[in-house]
Amino acid sequence: MGLTRDFFIALSKNQVLNSGAKKWGLKLGASKMVAGTDIDSMMKSVKELNAEGISATIDNLGEFVYSREEALAAKNNILDTLEAIQQHGVSAHMSVKLTQVGLDVDFGFCLENMQEIVAMAANYAIFINIDMEDYSHLQQTLDILEALLKEYDNVGTVIQAYLYRSEKDMEALRDVRLRLVKGAYKEIPDVSLQSASDIDSNYLKLIKNRLQLPVFTSIATHDHVIINEVKRFVKENDIPLNRFEFQMLYGFRSEMQKELAREGFNFTTYVPFGEDWYGYYMRRLAERPQNLNLALKSLVSK
C-alpha cells in the first residue's frame, strides 16, 4: 500500500504528465471525481447537490504555478467562479490553494491576489477557505491568513491532524472557521505522525476539542468510524448542529453524503473542476488506490 501511495504521489508532481492531461480531457476515470472542466458543467453538479440539501465548496483546480502570468490567470478564473456562484444563487463557497495564485512566485504578490479574491467574496457574502498544502508551504499559508484576517472575516483554512504542530495551530485559530482533515501529503516523521491509528486518534482529539468552541468547523472525512464517533460525541455533549458540518469529496460515498444531509447534519461536498485536474486526481488515487479500479474501467470502456 505504501509503495502504491508513493507511486501516485510522485505521478501527481509530474509536470509533463500534468501538461498532457489538459489535452486529454477528463479521462482515466477522473470524471467520477472532477465536476467538469468549465464553470457551466461544474455549476450543473452544484445545483444537483443543492437539490439534495447539500452545499458545495468549489475548487478551481490549478497546480505548478511559477509565473505571474499563470497566477493572474488563475486568480481571474477564481473571480469568475465567484461571479457564477453569485449569479446562479447556489449554496456554495470556494476553496483556494495559495500556490495557484502565486505563493511560489512572491509572497506579497500572492497576498495581493488573495486580498482581491477575499474582497469580492466578502461583497457577495461568500466564504473563502484557504486549502492547506504540503508542510513546506504551511507557515506562509498561516501568515497570509493572518494578514487577511486583519481586514476580513470570511476566510479560514485547514488543519491537518497528522502534523505535530496542528493542536497549537488550531488553538491560535480558535475564533476562525476551520476545516479539519487527516492530511493528504507525504511528510517526514520529524513533522508528522506516520501510523494510521495515531493519525485517527489525533484527528478525533482535535475534532472534539474544536466542537466545544462556539465557532463553525468543517469535519472532512470519508471514514464512517470517525463520523459515527462524532455523531455520538455531539449527541452526548448537546453540541448544536449549526456549529459544524461534515465534508466529503465529490464522487466519494455519495449515498452516505445524502444520508447525512437527510439526517439533518450540515453537509458540504468538495467540488473540484477545471482543466488542471491531473495532480488532484493522482493524489486521490494515492489516498485510496482502490480508486484505480475506476480508472481501469474507464480505459476499458473507451
Distance between the termini: 28 Å
Order of helices and strands: HHHEHEHEHEHEHEHEHEHH
Query: Strand pairing plus helix content: what structural class?
Result: alpha/beta
Instruction: Compute the average pLDDT.
Output: 89
Strand-residue proportion: 5-15%
Number of domains: 1
Number of helices: 12
Topology:
Blueprint (H helix, E strand, L loop, with lengths): L1 H11 L2 H10 L14 H13 L3 E6 L7 H21 L3 E5 L10 H17 L4 E3 L7 H12 L5 E6 L5 H7 L5 E4 L14 H16 L5 E4 L3 H13 L7 E6 L4 H9 L4 E7 L4 H10 L4 H10 L1
Parallel strand pairs: 1-2, 1-8, 2-3, 3-4, 4-5, 5-6, 6-7, 7-8
Helix pairs in contact: 1-11, 4-5, 5-6, 8-9
Catalytic activity: L-proline + a quinone = (S)-1-pyrroline-5-carboxylate + a quinol + H(+)
Organism: Planococcus chinensis
Protein name: proline dehydrogenase
Structure commentary:
- The protein has one domain: TIM Barrel (Alpha-Beta Barrel).
- It is globular, with a radius of gyration of 18 Å.
- The protein has 12 helices and 8 strands.
- Strand 2, helix 5 and strand 3 form a beta-alpha-beta unit.
- An 8-stranded parallel beta barrel has the order 1-2-3-4-5-6-7-8, surrounded by 7 helices.
- The protein has 302 residues and is of the alpha/beta class.
- The C terminus is likely disordered.
